[in-house]
Amino acid sequence: MKVELQGKVALVTGAARGIGKAIANKLAQNGATVIFADINHPLVQQTAGQADQQFESNCQPLQMDVRDPEQVEQGIQHILTDFGHLDILINNAGINTLAHRVNIDQFPLAEWQQILDVDLTGLFTVSQYASRPMIAQQQGRIVNIASVAGLVPLRLQCAFTAAKAGVVNLTKAMAIELGSNGVLVNGVAPGSVLTEGTRKLFYSDDAKFRQSMQSLLDHIPLGRPAETEEIAHAVLFLVAPESSYINGHVLVVDGGWTAGYLREF
Ligand SMILES: NC(=O)c1ccc[n+]([C@@H]2O[C@H](COP(=O)([O-])OP(=O)(O)OC[C@H]3O[C@@H](n4cnc5c(N)ncnc54)[C@H](O)[C@@H]3O)[C@@H](O)[C@H]2O)c1
Q1: Burial of 81: CB neighbours in 10 Å, binned 0-12, 13-18, 19+
Q2: Which pLDDT score, from 0 to 100, does residue 45 have?
Q3: pLDDT greater at residue 230 or residue 98
Q4: How open is the CA angle 62-68-70, to the nearest 5 degrees?
Q5: Whose CA is nearest to atom 13 of ligand 1?
Q6: Span 159-190, pLDDT tens digits
Q7: Comparison of pLDDT for 200 and 150, the residue scoring more
Q8: Ligand 1 contact via 69 beta carbon (within 6 Å)
Q9: CA dist 40 to 43, 64, 225, 226, 254, Å?
Q10: Is 75 close to ligand 1, i.e. is its CB under 6 Å away?
């Protein structure tokens, strides 16, 4: 898919690796100036540096912890000083529990708070600071990366499931608040995606969660996880100038997992 994003300035959070990296690269490949933001500064410098060499677009790294309002405000101010405008925000930064795949009665409060802080409050914070210049410009696009877990709850991941359900409804609330200012807000809800992280945890032969992942794969009509590029294409579609009447939509990209039951009765 080819989209015209020349002249647009995009900010992607959690862009050092995984889905965020694929999204940031895809926007750069289609002509946008892209700010690769991440808490992991050395890695995001490397990722943005590679993209800057690979694509004709300007790709810049930015150290940003989405939990830190001061850093978020300064980062966005920096973008506005350097480029004059901010047109696209992709709220991708997110974490999940690995240590505690347990029911709610055992789930540590501290981990609940960490996940909510990044996945929901962090997304709120970046959206708050990014939406202000977009309202002033009377144009902008925001895409929030949710999860199928925000639509169909999963066991043993209560914090992630709750945070992503929050992202789904916050996306719609933002859409109805910001739409009259020309700022369109949508979401993408990925199913299982093959990243450096999930490859190690789920998809390698000695992976810790290999067995549970096999049972998940058995219920995906396409029988495989998504590639990061397949999520990036959905985001690209939503930020395309042609997608000018799509607002408040959450696009599920899950190979059909949430479409219905694959089980026989
Ligand atoms: N991988 C999947 O199967 C899958 C499925 C559904 C949804 N998602 C969602 O997609 C998004 C990306 O997931 P991924 O699998 O690529 O994750 P990942 O762990 O590979 O990458 C996440 C990136 O976010 C950064 N990050 C973490 N905390 C941050 C913070 N406080 N501030 C800024 N950056 C921070 C990390 O440094 C990392 O570079 C997340 O929101 C995740 O919930 C992933």
Answers
A1: exposed
A2: 98
A3: 230
A4: 80
A5: 19
A6: 999 999 999 999 999 999 999 999 999 999 99
A7: 150
A8: no
A9: 6, 8, 26, 24, 28
A10: no
* Domain membership flag for residue 144: yes
Question: Is residue 220 a part of any domain in this protein?
Answer: no
Question: Is the CB of 133 within 6 Å of ligand 1?
Answer: no
Domain-located, residue 222: no
| Residue of 76, 95, 113 with the most ligand 1 atoms within 8 Å of its CB, for mutation | 95
Instruction: Kindly give the number of the ligand 1 atom that is closest to the alpha carbon of 40.
Output: 37
**What's the 180 CA to ligand 1 centre distance in angstroms?**
30
Residue pair 34/28 in contact by the 8 Å Cβ criterion: yes
Q: Which residue's CA is minimally distant from atom 42 of ligand 1?
A: 94
Span 208-218, average pLDDT: 79
Average pLDDT, the chain: 95
CATH of the domain at 59: 3.40.50.720
Residue 214: what pLDDT?
83
- What average pLDDT score do residues 22-30 get? 98
**How far, in Å, is the centroid of ligand 1 from the Cα of 94?**
4
Number of domains the chain is built from = 1
% of the chain at pLDDT higher than 90: 87
Does residue 110 sit within a domain? yes
Tell whether ligand 1 has an atom less than 6 A from the beta carbon of residue 161: no
Contact criterion met (CB below 8 Å) for 253 and 21: no
Structural domain range at position 141? 9-194+227-253
Q: pLDDT at residue 36 above 80?
A: yes
Taking each helix axis from N to C terminus, what angle separates 69-83 and 123-137, rounded to the nearest 10 degrees? 30
Q: Give the Cβ contact number of residue 73 at 10 Å.
A: 15
SS3 assignment, position 208: coil
> What is residue 213's predicted lDDT score, i.e. its pLDDT?
78
